[in-house]
Each structure stands twice: as structure tokens, then as C-alpha cells.
Amino acid sequence: MRKSLIASILIFTLFSLILYSYHDYPPFSWLESGIQQVFSGPQAALYTWKINMLDRDRTDISQLKKEKREVLEKLSDYENLKKDNEALRGQFETSSEGVSSTRLLPAVVVGSMGRMEVPYRLIISAGRNQGVKKGMTVVFGKNLVGKIGGTSSSYSEVILPVADSFSALGKTIENNTIGIIKGKGDFTIFDQVVIADTIQDGELIVTKGELDKDGLGVYPGIIVGKISSINKVETKPFQSAKVIPLIEYYKLYKVFVIMPQK
Amino acid sequence: MKLNLFFIILLLLMLFLESALLSFPFIFFWSAIFFLMRKKIWVILFSVFVATALDYLRLSVIGITSFSLLILFLFIIIQKQFFEAADYKVILAILMVCSLVYSIVAAYGITLAFLLACIINPLLAFSFLKSYMNRSQNR
What we know:
- Chain A is of the alpha+beta class and 262 residues long.
- Chain A has helices at residues 2-22, 28-55, 59-91; strands spanning 102-114, 119-124, 137-140, 143-151, 156-159, 167-172, 178-183, 188-194, 204-207, 210-211, 217-218, 223-231, 238-244, 254-260.
- Chain A is elongated.
- Chain B has 139 residues and is mainly α.
- Classes of the chains: A alpha+beta (262), B mainly alpha (139).
- The interface between A and B is large, with 41 and 35 residues.
């Protein structure tokens, strides 16, 4: 009995290694697609239930936060309009900033990784079959949710701006001060800002945009959050700031993937 | 028979729980407990299936959970050569260490609460296992 158990364990171990090596090829890819399609509905329902449970006692605070987010989004729109106007006056053409030349693919959040209220990764129910590719931007409203870190047949993972592996170019909305948006596990920082540049408490940070020739990457003008504290030492060449997102990632149940228009 | 059904339902529930609600290696723990109670080939097959499904749903490295689980099963079988047959402390230690290593490899995000759960969960599972073993010995 013991020998047959060890033999079957070794056979299954070999199967695991084959699965690891050939998971992108049929029939394993069919298995992946089948499992994800069967489980996505119940998973999404469970995840939404979790969000409702976590948010049950905080309705008033949530309402206030929502209103605050809307005000800040309008402020961001106002700043963009101002820049558009300036560009129109100078060049007689509108700014290309934003996500106007794209389409948005809605996706349901089916799971998360990390602490319950501070996830660093979301799993969404849109994958390669829906045209999602690694590096695409994921948004909720005008807010950045993250970047696609990996895809499978019907699921994709979204790397949130708090994740250690997240990094993107950003700028302040008022002064156009450029820096790098980095995840630190629990929060996001606006790093590598030249000491001579101006950043202020409460200032909004938006993405600067890093798109490749296929239109993949982080789109410009998407709100990352607002500055909550600044770390500035005059003797150092760079300063950094802590950024608080306007959305709570753990409460998201539907997000949108920015798909480049062909 | 009832225990088999209980574990099959439990593991399927854990699959939903782990992939949608809580980032904690429930499948890893409870598959090991199931194997400790029923050292059968079909238990290995079922555990490998659930572990593979979990990898697909969590978008982990495909095969990592089943591979880790099989290594743990192998440890459980081999440890009998070196220790007493019913030395639960050794199995408990193996389970805790293996689950911690698996959690790091499969990127579960280790926190203090996670570490505490890593200790409490096997203890609970083991008290369940021990009471089951005592009852089956008394029969």
C-alpha cells in the first residue's frame, strides 16, 4: 500500500510538472478556461457579499468619501479643461490626453490577494479570450485601479498601485511636477521628485502616460490619488510624498480595462 | 463514507473561500488532514484536482499548489520511517513549516494575523484529527 501511494505521488508530481510547463497548450488551456468560466459567477457573488459585509456599518462614511471623490474628479476635469483651452488657444487643436481613443472593457472582480482591506492584487473575470493583455491600464471612473500583471484564458490579475511591484510615471495636476508612482505594500508613494520641484499637501497626482506603439501601458491623465504627506530633506537630491487613493480598492466589484482602439 | 463526503464538500467550499474571500492556504491544510485520515490514491487525485483548480482561480503559478501538496504527502508517508506512527507533534510541525513555505512561494502575503492563523488552523485541524482517531480506535 505504502509503495503504491509513493508511486502515485510521484506520478502526480510528474503531472504537476507537465502542467506547469504546458499550461498554455490544449487540453490544459481548455481545462483552465472551463474551470474559470464555471467558477466566475459564484466567485463574483461571494466577493460582492464580502464587500457588502465589510461596508455594512460604514454607509455614511462611504457616502462622504464618494462625494469627496466626485468633487476631486471634477477638479481634475477642470484642470484638464484649462490645459485643453490653453492648447486650443496656442495651437488650435485639442489635447490628446485622456482615454478618448480607446474603449473600456467592463470586468467583474472575483478575488483579491493580500490583507482583506488592503489588497495588493485583484483578480478580474476578463482574460485573453476577451482581448486583455499584460500591461493594460485598469480604471474605475477616472481613477487608476492598476495595471494588468498577468492573464489567463478568462481571468486576469490587476497589480494595484500599493503593490511592491507597481511602478508608473506620474505628475502633479497643478504644477506638472514629474515623479514615479511606486507601491510600498500598504500604500503608494510619489517618489524621485527633484528637490527643486514643487509638490503640495492635498495636490492630485495623475498618471503621466507610458504607452508603447500598440497602445499598451498606462494611459495619461488618470487620477492616482492625492498627496497626504511630503518627505523632503533639503540635503537630498529627491523628495517623495505619500499618496492616498480616492477609491478603496477592496470595495471595487467592477472595474474597466482600457483597450486600445485598432 | 460520511467522512469522505464531508471532506469532499469541505474542500470544494474551501476552494470558493480561498479564491474569493480569504487569502489563506485552507486547501493546503485540509487536503493534508484529509490525506492523514484516508491514505488512498483517490484522495491524492482529488486533492491534486482541487489544488489545480485553485491555481487557475487564484492565477498562481500553475501546478505550484499540487506540487507543494504532493511533497507534503510524501513527507507524511516518509516520516513514519523515522518517528513513531502516531507522533502528531512531528506531523503538526511538518504541516506548519510546509504551509508557511508554500504561503511564501505562492505569494499569499504574510502578515502577523496570517502567521497566527498558520498556527491556530493546524491546531484546530489536529484536535479534529485526534478526536477522530481516538474515536475510531475505541470502536
